[in-house]
Please model this.
Amino acid sequence: MGQGLEKMPTLYIVPTPIGNLEDITLRALRVLHESTLIAAEDTRTTRKLLARYEIDTPLTSYHEHNKLTKLDAVLAALDTGDVALVSDAGTPGISDPGYELVQVALARDIPVVPLPGPSAVITALVASGLPTDRFVFVGFLPRKSGALRKALADLAAERGTLIAYESPNRLVDTLAAVLDVLGERPVAVARELTKLYEEVQRGPVSDVLAHYRQTPPKGEITLVIGGAVEDATDQPWDADRVCETLRAHLDAGETRSAAARAVAEASGWARRDVYDLDVD
Ligand code: SAM
Model:
């Protein structure tokens, strides 16, 4: 700061670990220490992190259910000092509260300073082995089957790598929908990143689906899906593609009837013709 220039109270966006408590930057610790107030998604979770680093800055809750009613209180705190926004894990604003606060702060000419740091989306992408030069983050996919399939169909022509947050009890259904709607694609399921049981399952979606049907997943999951290749989604399906997709469905444990119905729907072929294909 130059002489005579007073620093304006600032809203800091502070990423926190997604599992391993060592994954926090020196700058994040300093900002948490020096701020007047920390607005935290869950004050109990953040208190544990602060205790580990002996930081005793006051906390207030700022979560999904009070993020609008709490705006005035956080803005009032910004009249007198810096506020650090943190979520339970990772980067605030990424499938977590933050966007509204940033928007209102900017509208009031309050400086917003983002700190780089952990986020499951980028950590999973770089571990996936899938192209990183272009990607689309879709947050949490819809839970209901029809809406999920529609969301995937809307993404079918997207060439960038797709990344979604997913819950362990929906993963198998989501992978089955990916296979149905997008066909056989490479995927990576990044589970428990940075934690003791970290694992990344990579492979064709049918293999990964078969794996998780056998071994139901636990923990936190980020799903990475290869983007569309060439113009495959615009072309009529040839017999090879239909056979390959049918085989993938059967390998994933579906009955021949269910597999034929799904592949017929995706390819535009008649169900009977798909059913009769010789793929065993
Ligand atoms: N703001 C966070 C971020 O930047 O990563 C994401 C918050 S979102 C509510 C939480 C979801 O992120 C989890 O349900 C899971 O899908 C994903 N996630 C969080 N931690 C993870 C981890 N350690 N490994 C894999 N996925 C994780």
About this structure: The mean pLDDT is 93. The chain has three domains: 11-114, 120-228, 239-275.
